[in-house]
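lol ok so funny story. i was supposed to be doing the assay writeup but got distracted and ended up predicting the structure for this chain instead. priorities right. anyway since i did it might as well share w the group, maybe its usefull for someone
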Amino acid sequence: MAKRPTIYDLAKAANVSTATVDRVINGRHKVREETARRVYDAAHEIGYHAAGLIKQRIQENLPHVKFGFILQKPQHYFYQQFAENLHEAVRLNNDVQGRCQISWAKATSPTEFATLIEQMSKTCDVVAAVATDCLRVSTAVAEAKARGVQTFSLLSDFAQDVRAGYFGTNNLKVGRSAAWMIANTAKKAGKVGLFVGGSRWHGHELRETGFRSYFREHAPQFQVIESVTNLETRELTYETTLELLHKNPDLVGLYSAGGGIEGSLVALREEQRHTDMTVVVNEIMPETVSGMAEGVVTAVLATPLDDLCRKLVCYMGKSVTDKNFEVPSQTFFPMRLHIPESL
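and the output, tada:
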């Protein structure tokens, strides 16, 4: 059994004296904030038993901020991971005493997203949401802003003229990257299929634009056929993939700009088409990992949730505590490319 770290181990890790550590833990004498934070970081890193108490001492005089987050698909692996990263980012933020509240959209309709934004902006200091881009949502964001509550858009942008800032990947580049992967790994030129979640997802529109523009500019020997709307559901994606394969026996590539790809993977296995196709999907989850392992999926373009959530919570907190803080209009995070050999 590993020996539990002592106060001497903590002092060494933080490069301070044991007396300084004692003052931080017990609050006997004031310690510079920078030093106290260094002690806490070291305590967290080495697993010191009083790390929670040290954080409490540091945060005693910090402002309270209630963070509100709106996500969709509560049973979906990706969004479960998103929620876990948000909780962790709020917990580890050292600039405020944060509380995390997450609400889930079940039907992903504009009315539901708008209602959730309206409700959350009345109970939270700042809000970040995954939502469609439409007038109903923009109105809810504008009303929240009028009450002094800023709203951040996540993954797919919305309400660009009134929201505080966008956090996510550069969706235009994601689409172009998916096209590059297909154009350079497909066994031959031919037809390429594309799934989008719906017309109100701004991020999907950008991915489609980037996807098509790359083929027009650099790989005109491929034909990107008409996009298929799958509403990001497993069942509909399964059915539409089967239909797509039957109508286009010469399909050489497939890209899903949003969710629901699990249904496509089932259809590809059933039709035994994955051996002659390049398939590019988004986000790391059990289904896409197993798809790569089996040779069904060629590449996965993933959102770096850990980095995104940390910076998001930092900026959200500053937007509440510092009225002069200027939130960047767009904060892009480089996507992470996963291929079978990187598993």
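The mean pLDDT is 93. Residues 202-218 form the longest helix (17 residues).
back to the writeup now i swear
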